[in-house]
Amino acid sequence: MKQFILTAFTIGLSFASFAQEQATPSFSLEEAVAYALENNYKAINANKDIIDAQKQKWETIAGGLPQIEGAVSYQNLLKQPVSLIPAEFFGGEPGTFTPITFGQAQTASATATLKQQIFDGSYIVGVQASKAFISYSANNKEKTDLEVRKAVVEAYGNVLLARESVLIFEKNRETLSKNLYETKKIYENGLGDEESVDQLQITLSSVENQLRNAQRLEKLTLQMLNLVMGLDISTPTVLKEDLDKLTQREMDLRLLDEELTMENNVDYKLAYNLNEQRFFELKLAKSRTLPTLNAFINYGSTAFSENFDFFNGEQQWFDSSILGFDLSIPIFSSFKRNASTARAKIALDKAKNQLEESKENIRLQLENAKSEYLFSIEQYDTSKANLALAERIEQKNQIKYFEGLASSFELRQAQTQLYTAQQEYLQSMVGVINKKTELETIINN
Questions:
Q1: Is this model's pTM higher than 0.90 or not?
Q2: Among 2-11, 147-156, 328-337, the least confident range
Q3: 26-27 and 67-76: which strand pairing?
Q4: Bridge partners (DSSP) listed for residue 328
Q5: Phi and psi of 344, rounded to 5°?
Q6: 355, exposed or middle or buried, with CB in 10 Å at 0-12, 13-18, 19+?
């Protein structure tokens, strides 16, 4: 019995541990990106746009395939029309008329019609354009994925930044609280002045305020990351990365030597899609000058009766069938079609200019992104060195202060300089991560 209870208890603990792991997802940066690409709301909609484009393509193709329509009609002449027939036809007096009704009061008919498009220039263009639309949807999905990736990287970095800020402010608060305590004791023993106590109190209050703000930002940035990833914002997501190690990994100067393949850039792809769209719009305008030819054949049956007994087995039905062709030939539109074609040609020329402009903009963006990425690395190295200097200066001023060789004002200046260097160092690490992502987005290899 004891063995059974022990086993049950162990299974219960294992299940609770598993449930806790399931309820607390943890992600590295790349895992967070991969998860977001599947669950981000914009990414999901972009996938649906591709499916929608494929359905639209089939909708366009199906328009030129055989179409069958059925129709059922029922009429009941509550008051039948009366026609006047010369009475002399029935042996009456000449010059007089006899009222008469034709046919029976109720009519029912059923018809099936098969239609087939034989030639329509706009249909051919539409099928070609639908393929280009699928390409546009795929490229738009790629751009969405790149934007989602960039948003995840920024949000992930902001969470790490907020957490590191909290740790630094807590450390600063602990150091300041100790300094303030010691200064108060010195002052109470008559060996210091009240101004030194006040200076440290001001600095401590400021640090405590920044700590509370950093703690709020830590919660808020995690909620933003959850939102970008497609999680409930209250999910207690665990981040596997360390800000410093992640920054070291993201520093890769070889990326600056990467060659740009213009066809890989998603903005170029979308600009090219615009050219395709304008090209097919021009073809569509030209196709309107061509004739259209359609064929149809139908088969129907009609019944007549004074009463509603069409489902009676003895009811007589009369069959009919028609085969026909519709040929439409554009002849003269008061130059409307010419104007439409000219406008489509102008739109295509503008799209070509926009494509060339996009190429130059992409090249400029690449040079700017490389410059900013290199600057972010340089800024990181500088801020790291400055932080080490600021820490030494602050430590020396602490020693001088308690030895009576430095004033409280000089100590506060050194501390403020240290706090600024700490934040610049953290920001520089996030800058390296974000700038690399921007450069990778442009190159898109």
A1: no
A2: 2-11
A3: unpaired
A4: 292
A5: -65, -35
A6: middle
